[in-house]
Amino acid sequence: RRRNRRLAAYHQYPACGTSSFNSTRGACNNVKANEFDFMGYSIRTPRWRYTCWYHWDKEQLEPFWDGDYADELYDHKMDDSSNFNRWENVNLSSRRPDIAAMLKVKLEAFFQRNHKKKKKKKEVDEQDLFLIDQRRVSVLA
To answer: Which residues are CB-neighbours of 100 under 8 A, at least 6 positions away?
Structure first.
């Protein structure tokens, strides 16, 4: 019996106070979400890792999906995962735009779907709070 295996893994991480992503992103530790500068979204398949960086909307707490800031594409074909060093590997996004574009479509579909779910839940929660406040007013009246 074959186990159902995931075809891709997804990751999300912020960047703060930097215009270069080739540095440690620990600057966002203990930083509130409304103070992030960028958000990186990654998809990792058995062969590729693609990351797209977006400017962060500090009011809506979501990325500006209509304009990416930078992207990275790395080929893990010859990687045994113990010796991969992304600082020494070449960013292939400009050399393999076909792969980058395909992975970007999957990445955005996955994360946009999750952002919409969170936004919908927040709207429902806010509506519930409004109804609770209305009940308190009617009880107090």
So the answer is: 50, 71, 73, 92, 93
CB 16 within 8 A of CB 27: yes
Which residues on adjacent β-strands are paired with residue 50?
A: 43, 73
62-117 residue pLDDT tens: 899 887 788 888 888 766 555 555 555 677 888 888 888 899 898 888 888 876 66
| Angle ∠(52,53,59) on CA atoms, nearest 5 | 135
In the structure encoding, which two tokens stand for residue 116, read together?
């919409």
From residue 44, give the alpha-carbon distance in Å to each of 49, 80, 103: 4, 14, 9
Tell whether pTM > 0.70. no
Distance CA 97, CA 127 (A): 43
Q: Residue 139: what pLDDT? A: 45
Length of the chain as a residue count:
141
What is the percent of the chain with per-residue pLDDT over 70, rounded to a whole number? 62
Query: From CA 16, how far away is CA 39, in angstroms rounded?
Result: 9
